[in-house]
Amino acid sequence: MGNDSGFMNRHYFLLRRLHSLSGILPIGVFLINHLLTNSTIAWGLVNSRASENVAPGTIEQVGEMTARRVGTFQHEVTFINEMPFLVLIEVTLWVSIAFHAILGVYFARTGKSNTARYAYQDNWRYSLQRLTGYIAIFYIFYHVATLRWGWTFMSPTDEPWSHSQAASTFSLALRGQAQGIGFGGILVSLFYFVGVTASVYHLANGLWTAAITWGLTISESAQRRWGYVCAGLGAGLMLMAWSSLIGFLLLDVNHARAVEADMHAAHGTHVETTLPVAEADH
Amino acid sequence: MSSTEALREHEAQERKANRARAKAGRSVIFKIIRCDGPGKPSRWESFKVPVEPGSNVISCLKWIAANPVTIDGKQTTPPVWDSGCLEEVCGACTMVINGKVRQSCSCLIDEYAPLEGDTITLEPMSKFPVVRDLWVDRARLFNALKRVKAWVPIDSTYAQGAGPKESPEHQQTRYRLSECMSCGCCLEACPQYNIEEDESKWDESFIGAHAISQARLFNEHETGKRLKGERLEELSDKGGVGDCGNAQNCVKVCPKHIPLTESIGAMGRATTIHAIASFFTGKK
Questions:
Q1: CATH code of A96's domain
Q2: Counting C-beta atoms within 10 Å of the first and last residue's C-beta, which end of chain A has fewer, N or C?
Q3: Cα separation of A20 and B243, whole Å?
Q4: A11 vs chain B: nearest CA distance in angstroms?
């Protein structure tokens, strides 16, 4: 037996429980927050204050609703981007996701799906939890690599995602072109749909099983009641995830750029510009 | 009614409906997996069996053993199976019937093959090594009971007097768990429990729902709880309750309707508390 499996065996309980915990904190909590932010590209239209920093001329050009949607989303992204210790938060998330993914694959490989023989709903839930985990690994890697690490060679557009032009550059990365949608864009959009759906399912079902793992729900009725809570949360997150995608797919990239430009003009110093050389020399 | 009860009720209704339309004097086809010994290749053989009123799978297997001629007229060896009580309390005759695991002694032909020419398939359980035909070696199942010390420690060099009092409510909870007959249905249906022929790996392989439930039974016993810490240590380690994937097939196929998933939740809670207590006290 190698050292790795020896370490694994000695700390098996701790690793199992850390795997369970990491799915909820920080990953699950982050996913909820992330989907809340993203869905403002759709639900920002009810935010009447969002267009305050957009010039009247721009509103006339792009429409009040687009101004509100892009305005709210950009406001949220800017807020996140100005958080202290952002790199620490990011690295914590990357490490947690990698830990959860590696152990998850290891654990998933100990099982052997048998839904063909035992086609119970719970058994399908079990198999789907593993399938959605695998999908989420590929999806999250693609998502982070193309948008955060700038690996645009995997993206249908050459333009990297920018936090200062969050809506327009993401919409471009999703669709591949400013107007309409191309073949690559259709593929990426479908991948995003499958990926977020899988991720949300994985979180909702993972929350349900975690309650059994930790021993919060014991009786079948307690498990059923907690199941309603998890299903409700899952449905809500699914709605947010899908409306975000629709929001980005139905966005005019050039209109979004105009709103973002106004936002930064109003926000002043936060616009990403290089300092004049003369000033930097002082 | 819980979802598990609803599922059982649905299955019972299906069986009842089949019983009502069962044709007298019919013959049914038995499709059986045959294997001459451990490690030998397996093959399917079919037999045409006349059904008598009240026949079950074991009575039909006995008929086949007395008339070991396949449907193609080929002479073969009598099929081998394991059985004991013939009243669904020993668990020995457990096999996979029409794709699902259950006891063969209590499996009525009228409920599974009500019409002339209907087929019943018999396979050995897939999670245990085959000894021959439908007979498997369930030693790993019993090894799991040793792992969790599924007994009450009463050995001593002197009389210890009467044991602690037991409340009726507590007794009721434990009674349901005590009905386990170690048949292996929960293991056969479990996607996390897979065949392991290497005996040296048994102690690190998934222990299974039956042993988790038995650990709960004896941890709840007023005298049995003396070994609680040791049982929880075993269940915390590799192959313990943490390896459960919550597919919850076990509770659906349990012939004794034991609340196995509740036992898994209860042992999850017990190992959580045990781990926290150990962390702060240093005691195992």
A1: 1.20.1300
A2: C
A3: 12
A4: 8
Q: For chain B, which residues lie within 8 Å of any Cβ of chain A, measuring from their own Cβ?
A: 2-4, 7, 99-100, 189, 191-192, 194, 204, 206, 236-238, 240, 242-249, 252-253, 259, 261-262, 264-273, 275
Name the residue type at position A264.
H
Q: Which residue has the tokens 């795997």?
A: A19
Q: Which of B30, B33, B89 is nearest to B60 (CA)?
A: B30
* CA-closest candidate to residue B220, choices B254, B267, B282, B272: B267
Q: Worst-scoring range by mean pLDDT, A163-167, A265-269, B78-82, B247-251?
A: A265-269
Q: Is the dihedral of CA A247, A253, A254, A258 positive or negative?
A: positive
Is the confidence metric ipTM above 0.90 for this complex?
A: yes
A150-154, A263-267, B78-82, B180-184: lowest mean pLDDT where? A263-267
| A3 lies in some domain | no
Best residue in B244, B262, B279 for a mutation probing chain A (most A CBs within 10 Å): B262
pLDDT single digits (tens) A4-55: 568 988 999 999 999 999 999 999 999 999 999 999 999 999 999 998 889 9
Shortest alpha-carbon distance between residue A3 and chain B (Å):
15
Give, as one character, the DSSP assignment of residue B79: P
Domain region containing A37: 12-112+120-281
Q: How far is A129 from chain B (nearest CA, A)?
A: 9
- Which residues from chain B sit within 8 angstroms of residue A204, using beta carbons? none
The verdict on residue A5 lying in a domain is no
B272 → closest Cβ in A12, A117, A214: A214
Q: How many domains does chain A have?
A: 1
Shortest Cα distance, chain A CAs vs residue B269, angstroms: 4
**pLDDT category, A273, cuts 50, 70, 90?**
very low
A87-137 pLDDT per residue, tens: 999 999 999 999 999 999 999 999 999 999 999 999 999 999 999 999 999
Q: At CB < 8 Å, which residues of chain A contact B?
A: 8-9, 12-14, 16-17, 107, 110-114, 117-118, 120-123, 125-127, 129, 209, 212-224
Nearest CB among A107, A215, A223 relative to B270 is that of A215
Read off the pLDDT band of A268 (50, 70, 90).
low
Residue A2 falls within a domain, yes or no?
no
B2 contact residues in A (CB cutoff 8 A): 220-221, 224
Domain-located, residue A46: yes
Give the span between the Cα atoms of A132 and A105, in whole angstroms. 11
Structural domains for chain B: 21-135 (3.10.20.30), 138-151+165-281 (1.10.1060.10)
- Tell me the shortest Cα–Cα distance from B261 to chain A, in angstroms: 8
Neighbour-count burial of A147, counting CB atoms closer than 10 A to its CB (0-12 exposed, 13-18 middle, 19+ buried): buried
pLDDT averaged per 10 residues, chain B (length 284): 89 96 96 97 98 96 98 98 96 98 98 97 98 98 98 86 87 95 98 97 97 97 93 97 98 98 98 96 86
Answering whether pTM is above 0.90, one says: yes
